Amino acid sequence: MKEEKHNELTKPKRILVLYYSQTGQLTNAVRSMLSPLRNHPNIQIDWRDLQPIKPYPYPWSLLKFLNVFPESVLMIPPEMKPLNFEPDSHYDLVILAYQVWFLSPSLPVTGFLKSLDAKVLKGKPVITMIVCRNMWLCAQEKMKSLLNSLGATLIDNAVLIDQGPPWATFITTPRWLMTGKKEGFWSIFPPAGVSQRDISGAARFGKAILDNLDDLEANPGKPLLSGLGAVKVNQSYIGSEKAGHRAFTLWSRLLRMAGKLGELPRRVMLFVFLIYLVFMILTFVPVGMVVRAILKPFMTTRLKKQVERLEKPSGSSIERMEQYI
Ligand SMILES: Cc1cc2nc3c(=O)[nH]c(=O)nc-3n(C[C@H](O)[C@H](O)[C@H](O)COP(=O)(O)O)c2cc1C
User: Fold this and answer.
1) Residue 162 C-alpha to ligand 1 middle, in angstroms?
2) Counting atoms of ligand 1 from 1, which one is nearest the CA of 65?
3) CATH number of residue 53's parent domain
4) Which of 54, 130, 230, 316 is the most exposed place for a label (fewest CB within 10 A)?
5) In a domain, 154, yes or no
């Protein structure tokens, strides 16, 4: 039998992995990422599933899907099952894998970050992994500020997005989430979710983590995943996400004023919101894209700076890719 070769580590390491997934896709992605570290004799990986006391449904009904909108956007945390960390739990690295809900971290992740258990992040280097349709910029900005307020250091961010062009995922992702059907159809729509190739490719991040784990203590805050194409910011989403998030915040406040989950006035408002959403998607979003395309040549420097900032800390360059694939 072939003996497994392991990178030497000067000291045993402990890694905490925090994740929440409904379909299991994100769990597969984070498992793929950590596969190169899994059987290492000197690495202990502590897997913690973030679970709200009242589970969210999957597949979703349209009403339930819309109903979590205001709490997601305003980051009003659900009650979570406690994780009961030891008060002085030591971890060399934390991986926080999350999905995006309405341009914000999903509610179970917000629930964890706003719970007492989140104290475990204090002083720890954190790598975020996002697995979502394609709009994650605002969610990660919110994540950055939460991690900052918890005293954690974000050292990397890796993002996997759904396969296919945005017009296709606009149909395939909600269809999957509301029916459970993942396969492609009509020969123009690809299967929903992230491609198997991208999920398997996440193992390159684990290899780079393994190679650099020993340096973490000496170089706190230094990214481990640079040069591996960990993120790619789509310029044209920056403006849409900002405008969308502003409108989402306003609507969320209105919906909260209309009452709690399940109350009639809130259902009525949700219906009005749905009409607004469809109207916006069919009118303002394409108009906004055309306007931004016209203005693009005059905003190149500004946009470039914004892209650079949003791609931090890992960046989108790919010069180390060959070494790790
Ligand atoms: C309520 C809800 C809202 C979502 N909003 C967004 C979003 O704003 N941006 C995005 O890229 N994906 C969005 N998604 C897709 C998720 O990020 C994720 O890809 C999907 O839920 C599958 O996750 P899972 O396989 O880990 O369960 C949303 C999903 C849900 C359930």
Assistant:
1) 10
2) 1
3) 3.40.50.360
4) 54
5) yes
